[in-house]
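User: Structure with Z16, C-alpha cells only please.
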Amino acid sequence: SNTTTEVPLSLESAGVALDAEAQVSQIQQALVNNLYWVQGKDEQFANAHDYYTALAHSVRNQLLQKRIRTAKTYAQERAKTVYYMSAEFLMGRQLGNGLINLGLYDTMRHALADCGLDLDELLEREAEPGLGNGGLGRLAACFMDSLTTLNLPAVGYGIRYEFGIFTQLIRQGHQVEAPDKWLSYGNPWEIARPDYRVEIKFGGHTEVYKKDGDDDYQVRWIPAQTVIGIPHDVPVPGYGTENVNLLRLWKAEAGEAFDLDAFNAGDYFGAVANKMISENITKVLYPNDETRQGKELRLQQQYFFVACSLQDIIRLHLRDHGSLENLAEFAAIQLNDTHPAIGVAELMRLLIDEYNFEWAAAWQITQRTFGYTNHTLMPEALEKWSVDLFGKLLPRHLEIIYEINHRFLAQVKLRYPNDPDRLERLSLIEEGGERRVRMANLACVGSHAINGVAALHTELLKQEVLQDFYELWPDKFSNKTNGITPRRWLLQCNPRLAQLISETIGDSWITNLDDLKQLEAHLDNEVFRHAWQAIKQENKWSLARYIHDTVGIKVNPDSMFDVQIKRIHEYKRQLMNVLHVITLYNRMVQNPGDHVVPRTVIFGGKAAPGYAMAKLVVKLVNAVADVVNNDPIVAGRLKVVFLPNYNVSQAQRLFPASDLSEQISTAGMEASGTGNMKFALNGALTIGTLDGANVEIREEVGADNFFLFGLTTEQVAACKAVGHNPWCYYDTNPELKRTLDVIASGLFSPGEPDLFLPILDSLLVDDPYMVMADFAAYVQCQEHVSRTYEDRDRWVRMAILNTARIGKFSADRTIADYAREIWKVKAVPVAGE
Ligand code: Z16
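Assistant:
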C-alpha cells in the first residue's frame, strides 16, 4: 500500500465535515502512519501496545492542536489564570478519557473493530500514571478535568516522578513493594520542553552587597549547587469544549555549570556521579499518605517544583503584562496542602532579591496571589521542617521566613498584648526541643484565602488546628467541599449506567450533575428499576471475572458486594471491617443452619511501606480470607477478597460493581473522602460515620438512604476526655470478645501465634481510633444493611436516589466555587475552528 509513503497524518479534528466512513478510514490511516513513521514498525509486526501508542499519538495530536489555539486565546484575552500547585496528580489513564472528551470514543471503537482491534484491549495497555498517594492527588486530577470543562485558564504544576506510587504485591498475605516503572515503554502523553528549562539553586550561603547606583543593601544567595528543571507538558482536555489546559510536570537534571568544574578538574566520574544526585530529586514519589517524613530529599522535591513553577509563572506574566506589580490580578496560585507552601518564601525572595521590590509591596503581592487548601486535621500529618535542615538547603528562605515571622508576630502582639502562649502557637517557628518551621503557619500567613475540604472539616479546622489563625482572620476562611469529575467516575467507568441515564433524562448531567435529580421522576417506573438493577448485575459479573483472573477467587455475583477501597490507615478502620467479617464467620460456625444474606467483602488499598500496623492489617485481611473462603461451613455465603495494587484503573472497575460503600472512619478524622462520592454516584449505598463529606452526602441523599452508625466527633472527644476503656467493650460484648479471642487463638496465623498481637494490643490498650467503642453499632447497622438488601426492590430505589441526589459532589461545582470566591477567574472559551 502507499499509505506508508506519506508523512504522519494527524486525525482531522471535529468541525471538518467528514462522513462516518471517511472518518473511519482516516483514523485507520493515521494509525498505520504512526506505526510506521513514529514507531518504526510494520503493521504486520505491531502488537497491542504498539497500537495503543499509535492511538495515543493520534489523540495527542488533536489535543495539541487545540492546546495551541487555547494558549493563543488566553494570551489575547489577557486572562487571569489559576496555577494549581500540587506535589501529586493522580491522573489515571489518559487514552479513554481523551477519546471521550474529544467525542471520538464510539467512532474510534468502530474504526478499530474494522481492523480487528478491540478498543478495550488497547486501553488496558496504557501504564497507570500513579503520581500520587490517594485522595489528595486524585482530587488534583479531578480539578484539572473540571477546570478545563469550565473553560477556566489553568495550569497544574507538579513533579514528574520517574517512579510513581509503588506496585503492591501480596506474598504469603503480606504487602511487598515493587518499584513502579511506569515510564519504561515511554509516555506518549508528555512533551518535554527543554526550551522552557529553568535553573534552581540549593544550599550555600547568603551575603549582603550594594547594587550599582543604589544606596540600599541587597541580599544575594550564593548556592552550593544548581539543578535544571525541564518541564514535561501533558495536555488536559475538558468535556465538550475546545479548551485544552496544561499539566506541567518538572523533571530534575544536572546543571551544566555545576559539573563543568568537576570535568575541568579531571574528575569525570565524580562529575557524572553528581549528575545522578541532581536527578534523584524527581526520582520517586514519597509513598506516605497522612504522615510526613522529614527527609531532606522530600524538602528538595517541594522546593524544586515550586521554584520551577514560580519562575515559569513569572516568565509568562512578564511576557503578557510587562511588570510583576499586577501579578495578583492575573495569577491565582493555589497550594494543595502545605507541600508547596515554600512558594510563599520563594515568591518573596524572587520579588525582593531578583526584582527589587520593597518588602511591603512584595508581601502584598504574595498574599493576594496565594490560596491555601488544608486536607487534614491529624496533627502528625502537619509538615514541620527542622530549622537546621532548612537553613542548610535554603539559607535565604530561612532568613525570609524569620523576617515574615518577625513582622507577623509584631502585628499579633498589638492585637493580643498579653498573650505569649498565643504568640508561641502562631509563630512560624516551633520552639522547645528541635526548632522547626511550621509549613501550615507559613501557608496561612502567606495566603489571602484558607479553605477546608468538607463542611465538618472546615468547622474543625476553625475550632482546632487553625483556631488561632481563624480568630485572627475569620474572613480568610471558607469551606470548599470536595467533588469528583462525573466524566471519569460515571461516563467513562460505567458506560452502561451512563447510557441508561442519558436515555432516561438526556445527557445534560455530564456537565450539570444536578440534572440527575430528574431520575427521581422515574423511581416508580418498574422497567427503569429493572434496567438499573440489570446493569449493576452485569458490572458485578464483570468484576467477578476480574477478581477470578487476578486473585483466583470465585465470588458469587448475586451476593452483596461490600467494598472498602482506600489507603490502609488505622483511622479509616479497615480493622473494624475485618472484625465484622470474623463476627459473621463466627456466627456461621456456631449456627451453620441460620439464614444469612450472602456477602462478598472486598478490600483494596496500599499501606505506607513504613507503617507496620497498616501492613499487619493487610496481612490480617488476607489471613481471614484464607480461612473463610476455604471453610465448607461457609458454603460460599461469605467471601473475602483483598485486591492487590489498588489504583485509579482498578477503581474504575470497582465503583460500578459495588453495592455497599464502607466509609467508616473515626468521626473527626477523615477530612472529606472522595471515594464516598464515587460509590454513591454509581448507585452504591453507604454505611458510614458522621465524618468528612459523609455528613453532606447523607444530607443530600436523605437519612433514609444512608446507613449511619457510630459516635459523633463530639462523642469521640467526650469519650476520650473521660478516659476511654476498651476492655469494658470486650467484657460486655460476647461477640466482640469471641472475635478478638479467635484472632488471639492463632486461627488466622498458623505457626505464628503472636503475629497479630500488636493489633489486639492496640485495640485493648488504648484503641485510639475507637474501634471497640463503635463496634457494636457497626455490627448492628450491618444487620440492617443485610435486611435491606434482601428487599431488592427497596435497595434499588435507594440506590437510584443516591445517584439522583449526588449532584452537589461534582468537581464542576467545587471548581466553580473556588473560581468565584477565591481565584476570581472567569471562563475564557476557545472558539471552534
Ligand atoms: C491525602 O490524600 C489527604 C490528606 C492529606 O493530608 C494527605 C494526603 Cl496524601 C486526603 C484526605 O485524607 C481525604 O480525606 C481527602 O478527601 C483528600 O485528601 C482530598 O481532600
